[in-house]
Amino acid sequence: MPRHQDMDDPIWSIRFKHGVHTVLLFIDSMKPFSEVTSTLLEILRERYPDGLTLNHTDGAPSTKLPPPGSDMPRIAYGVPHNPNDLSQGWRELPVRQTDIPLDSPIKNNGVVAFTFVSDDRDELEEVDFVVDVPSFEDEYDENEEQEK
């Protein structure tokens, strides 16, 4: 397990990403991932009751959220291969719900992808983090189409 990072302030701001969504959370880096997961789910249910959209081209929700009161779903977390270029993909964090963010590769002001995984998932099975990363070209193409 990694050593503790230098800690000036235990409250971190983390951008959690899934599909087109980015949720900024302030988390206590000394609290277990189970609390992070619980807080994230609460906010997702409140903000996106119809589900999460995976890409900008398809506006229909693609990821249904578990209903309140159901068992807490397993969420896998991932950090970017290259924090300066999120389009290069993500690697899964091998964290347990009792682990704390301070002992993980997550950093204050960092970006973390998340996805829902099944309870019977094989631990060796690679997780697919779907994060829609808009590019300048996408924005440029949209502006060109609107001008026509």
In words, what does this structure look like?
18% of the residues lie in helices and 22% in strands. It is of the alpha+beta class and 148 residues long. The protein has a five-stranded mixed beta sheet, covered by helices on one side. The model has no long low-confidence stretch (mean pLDDT 85).
Please describe the structure with a list of short key phrases separated by commas or semicolons:
Ubiquitin-like (UB roll), alpha+beta, 148 residues, five-stranded mixed sheet
The overall pLDDT, averaged over residues, is: 85
What would you say the CATH architecture is?
Answer: Roll
Total of domains = 1
Superfamily at the CATH H level?
Phosphatidylinositol 3-kinase Catalytic Subunit, Chain A, domain 1
Oligomer class: single chain
Q: Percent of residues in helical segments? A: 10-25%
